[in-house]
Amino acid sequence: MTAAVALTPVRAVGRLALLSLRTVGAVTLFALRSLQAVALGPWFPGQTLRQLAVIGFFSLPVIGLTAVFTGAALALNIYTGGGRFNAEQIMPQIVALGIARELGPVLAALMLAGRVSATIAAEIGAMRATEQIDAMRTLSTDPFGYLVAPRLMAAVIALPILTVVADIIGIAGGWAVAVGFLDFNPTVYIRSTVDFVQAGDVGTGLLKAMVFGFIVALMGCYHGYRATGGARGVGRATTDAVVSAAILIFASDYLLTTLFTQR
């Protein structure tokens, strides 16, 4: 009896490890099957264009608002920090670098995770609950080709574009605060930003955005596709999609930043 009680935490850790490995394996197989559908088709251009509008165009307002306030707050914080070293004039460069390499792609991806991952999981989960996915197979239509591949392609294309928009609006937010409240010269601020930011800084952010877009769509499709238990299961799938997408975005951001900063 005593030995059994002592082994309980070990068993719990073992079960958790097995569950984690099983989840990683299932996500990996789902991702490979999805990539196969993207590469080999059949393709559905109309469905992909519709997803581009849903994922990209309709996400512009929320990403724009997030970017402008983040850029403004970042400018104020950098101005305060720079003032402690009498280096307030570096604010335009640091704001531009931070937004282009980090905040632009990450914030755009997080907004997309909250808005798009949940929507994808709810749509596909509802189709699973009402057996529409089984009906597709009966009609010889591949659900991966019709449901998953268009969403993956649309997210990978849309998020870099949204990141460019977030970069521009975020830098504009910093510029507005600097010129309006901190007495920066508007022309000098813009010239400092343009002269400092390099193509590699923007390219790094866009590569991150492509990876994040894949993660956002994959998590939405994965959790929706595996949803069980009716309406309650669909609700659980939407929550899991958002949480897992956010965690993977932060983890992959760290790995990509480490990779891009290696010298």
UniProtKB/TrEMBL annotation:
**Gene Ontology cellular component annotations, sorted alphabetically:** ATP-binding cassette (ABC) transporter complex
Superkingdom as given in the UniProt entry: Bacteria
Q: Which UniProt keywords apply?
A: Cell inner membrane, Cell membrane, Membrane, Transmembrane, Transmembrane helix, Transport
Molecular function GO labels: phospholipid transporter activity
| Transmembrane spans | 12-32, 52-76, 152-182, 202-225, 237-256
Q: How does it sit in the membrane?
A: Multi-pass membrane protein
Q: Which InterPro entries match?
A: ABC_MlaE_roteobac, Permease_MalE
- Signal sequence span is none
Can the keyword Membrane be found in this entry's annotation? yes
Protein purpose: Could be part of an ABC transporter complex.
Q: Which family does it belong to?
A: Belongs to the MlaE permease family.
Q: What is this protein called?
A: ABC transporter permease
